[in-house]
Request: fold
Amino acid sequence: MSLTEAAPLFVGGEDVRGGGGLIERENPAVAAQSVGAVQTASPAQVDATVGAAAGAWRAWRRLPLAERAERVLAAWTFDEPARATLSELLTRELGKVRADAAGELGYGIANVVYAAERAEVVGRRVEDDAEGRFAFDRVPFGVVAAIIPWNAPLVLSSVKVGPALIAGNTVVVKPSPLAPLAVTEYLRRVAARLPAGVLNIVNGDADVGARLVSDPRIGKIAFTGSGPVAASILRSAAVNVTPSLLELGGNDAAIVLPDLELTDDVLCRMVFGSFLTAGQVCMAIKRLLVPRERFAEFVERYRAVADRVLVVGDPMAEATTLGPVVSARQRDRVRGLVERARADGAVVEPLGTPGDPGFDLAGGYFLTPTLVHGLPADHELVVTEQFGPTVPLLPYDDVEHAVALAEDSEFGLCASVWTADEERAFDIGQRLHVGTVFVNTHNRSGMSLRAPFGGVKRSGSGREFGVAGLREFSQPRVISHLTAVRSAGPDAGRRYPSWKEETIR
Reply:
């Protein structure tokens, strides 16, 4: 593919020819097929892009909050033809099932609408009382560097870029080289409707990301991705003391309590909780914890439902529910995990059924989904974030044992409790050191526009989604004029603040 055919950078309100090479994206469902390409930024262009964003920030932050929210909302509009184009492009470059890609796009837009309608939470609150006058503000950081992952680029760019712009920041986005096409086009449409330099897009590999996050003009970094990359970002951020929002991996446990009725509906939610986007989701079920006395029953029922609802094939086909993994490297990594587990004595249960027999699964990066059991809790397949269509199943003896197994992880993104007793689920959820606990569901079906999302431990810090995700892109400032200062004497500068004892008891 030639340079002129590839998507350019978008800097300072204009398409800019990239000074680096090209990133060409293959179709993971038909690996011989090229989907498109993007131009990449040179180091000088990364620097210039940050400069464009910094220059635009001066005017953007001075706009009234309500006007910023209105302008972002107006920019984030997509008619049906545009939505169809974007969701198809995402499917072709990522292998995400077409219906799932369309749903991701819609949910990303909904999150921006939600934030715009609640913009007042990053506004000003004034208190004027006997102690004095106080203006409590939420102010922007400046230029936000948003590093976007490949597995859900439309929704995960939305929850960074939308709130950051509403809060008064300008943004430079760097998409993942594994899925740069749809998100570049998506954000370019938004950026073209905003003032020049407010939203900018640079593509490239790790060197472009490293250059971006190490720039001292960056006010905040927002990153979703792997722990090793996050560690590299934090090393760069430490030099300039740049605050960072990090949403990293997970090894989510689903605790199935003994009272759960294993209906088709429940098990369908459980199966999709593991296998959506071929398991390539940070908040997917990564460990199934089942009562020992119901283990055989669970395996039989889980397999029966999975065989019915997991249809492996062409992600563009309406009947398909599970497409390929994103790359040959990812396929080989996940395949290696499963094969090593088999060699160590695990039972590997194949799941699902193939779709259209005329579609050649061997021509893409497809894996047979699997349920794996018979492994110890410290096995590689159990403790590793698999990020593919396989899930280990572990028996437990009692609830204490189940909680201990769930907690035995360096990650702390999500967990779920499955039970007929909602109150018990909430009680157990309080004991789990994670960012989100779902009840009787897991993965995206448990998400809410109002619920903040993020992890603890090695799953990251900070929150996206909800009001908390909007506040994440602003910081407090106070302007105060104390009554005691208004009429102060010559020794006012030496006084401690005054207070009444009864007000602090």
